[in-house]
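Researcher: Here's the sequence for the chain we discussed earlier.
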Amino acid sequence: MNELIEFLQTNGNELLLKTWEHIYISYLAVLLGILVAVPLGIALTRVPKIAQWVIGTVSVLQTIPSLAILAFFIPFLGIGTVPAVAALFLYSVLPILRNTYTSVKEVDPNLIEAGKGMGMTTRERIKGIELPLASPVIMSGIRVSSVYLIGWAALASFIGAGGLGDFIFSGLNLYDPAFIIAGAVPVTILALLTDVIFAKIEKTVTPKGIETHEKTV
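Model: Thanks. This is the structure I predict for it:
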């Protein structure tokens, strides 16, 4: 216990800085993933002939090791935050894209036709019918993606992007378990907190009457 207190007294400020860097990198990548994957998923429901090809291509990118992706971006984007966010962004896209495409595609066609009968435009149907009904599944994809990215962001330390991975890799280089724990424990806590936060958001955006159905599927 005394060793932990001493460690925090010596490295507390740096730990806070690395935690903020980790949150910034992870959440920025997730935000970019949402801004790209949700509209793309909706658009693909309109062109199902190429949907599976696009999702398949993104799935292949997901299988590439994260370190290889990070290394790939270095010649183009250098080192630091930008290539780290770009790499994490690629990993964020698949769960959000797949869930958006699947959930919007499975909206009851009768409801879509009813919207057309009421004179709703395509944009109005997306905003008023499709997105509200698909939101629980879309949020589930965002939630999964966010939790994964919190863990993967530790690898950003390899290309000088900072984050809690700096503590982990310093501990490995110095053979100092205190540094490893100081990096690994906050990453775990951040992942758990992220899961809880997005679970609450998922519950909030779920229309009444849909939540019970989703839980019974």
